[in-house]
Amino acid sequence: MNSAPRTRRLRIALVLNRFWPEVGGAETNLYFQAVELARDYDVTVFTPRRLADSPAYEEHAGFRIQRLPDALNRTGRFPNLGPNTFMPSLFPRLLRGGFDLVQVFPSLNNNSLLAFAATRLLRIPFIFCSFDFIDYAQRIQQGGGRMDVNVIAGHVPSRREAYMLRRAEHVFAISQRELAFFRRYNPSASYSPVPVQVDEYLQPASSPRARYGIADDEFVFLCLGRVSEIKGQDLALEAFCRIQHEVPRSRLVIVGRNDYEAGYVAAMHARIAAAGLGARVVVTGMVDRPDVIGWLHHANAHVIPVRFMNSGAVVAESWAAGTVVIQSDAVDPNYVEDGVNGYVFPSESVDALAAKMMTAWRNRAQLDAMAARGKEFVLANLTYQRLVEIYAEQYRRLVPQRA
Question: How many domains does the chain have?
Fold first, then answer.
């Protein structure tokens, strides 16, 4: 008896605005997504050429990468750092590529429009994976540091964006706020978590404490991320100023790039000096990836005082590294159960944040157990394997003969 012929693997085109070897939160996320998808599917990544020495075509980690010319980079300058790109050659490559579906990240940009047009001609599914549908950091700056966290609810997309949203075969959102927005235009929309490459965090990591003169027995409140108003490090600093005398042998360590908002950073340094906290507040600037992991492992509590955040990936990273979080309720989705796997405070309330920092310091003997509960949640729900399972559910629905 002859066995049935094996169905060929689903062919997926991923259209991205940035990709490896660039290193950033989104680029790292999309790289690991491509790696995990390639275990089960035939994957090709289309992305603008941004580095002079990056090959136009290569095969890597089981998938293909095509780096296409950016028509908006008219001077041919590299590295190409432009936030907006346009790859005209994408359109014919999709038409001739024999793909079963096209998945675009992280916004409805010029290249997403080309991909959408190609899928309409080919009559194949178009899947939109949104990270941040609008520029929230810009909205906060325009509002003088203030913004309604549910600003997306009142957003009116352009006619082109609304058309694409309505006709996409599926839309994925990384936050509940954006998911509610998308469902106004397309009932086929669902939540997709921002995952963690857990193996990176489960291994032992060297402590960076000694290089900054921090003893092992000192209590470290960590703030990790780009130093900017949207991240809210000023709130953590002000809270620490208020409790400094009640939390002996403690430090506030602010880790991340500080060249985005010069005025904001200067004001923080002035506040540190005025409070006489130069010896207890450490501002590292940008650090290499091993130090990022090291701080996540060797801090006592990670303070996440953001004025706005979609995804909450940094919460998952903290838990994976075994560190409890003290999180603003502006984070969406909120994975934290107050007092169970971390602490939550009302966004922008310095008094409430200071109280939660005091609570964490007083309950420091219980923090490891709280972080362990968070790690259990990460391993069950926030891995790349789980994300691909969520994608696969839609692939099977949209392309049943291949998926």
Answer: 2
Answer yes or no: is pLDDT of 5 > 60: no
- Note the pLDDT of residue 148: 87
If asked whether residues 261 and 328 sit together in one domain, one would say yes
What 3-state class would DSSP assign to 70?
coil
Question: What tokens appear for 297 in the block?
Answer: 């492992």
Pair (36, 84) in one structural domain: yes
β-bridge pairing 126-130 and 101-104: parallel
Handedness of CA 268, 284, 210, 321 (dihedral sign): positive
Query: Which phi and psi (to 5°) does residue 256 adopt?
Result: 150, 165
Domain range for 250: 199-381
- In tens, the pLDDT along 244-268 reads 999 999 999 999 988 889 999 999 9
Do 132 and 42 lie in one domain? The reply is: yes
Q: What is the CATH number of the domain that holds 69?
A: 3.40.50.2000
SS3 338: strand
pLDDT in tens, 306-318: 998 888 889 999 9
Could you tell me if 252 and 349 lie in one domain?
A: yes
The token duo for 377 is 């949640």
What is the pTM assigned to this prediction?
Answer: 0.87
Structure token digits, residue 214: 């921090």
Residue 156 exposure: Cα atoms within 13 Å on the Cβ side: 1
- Classify residue 403: in a domain, yes or no: no
Residue 39 within a domain: yes
The distance of Cα 177 from the centroid of its chain, to the nearest Å, equals 15
Do both 67 and 207 map to the same domain? no
Assign 109 to helix, strand or coil: coil
User: How many whole angstroms separate alpha carbon 256 and alpha carbon 306?
Assistant: 14
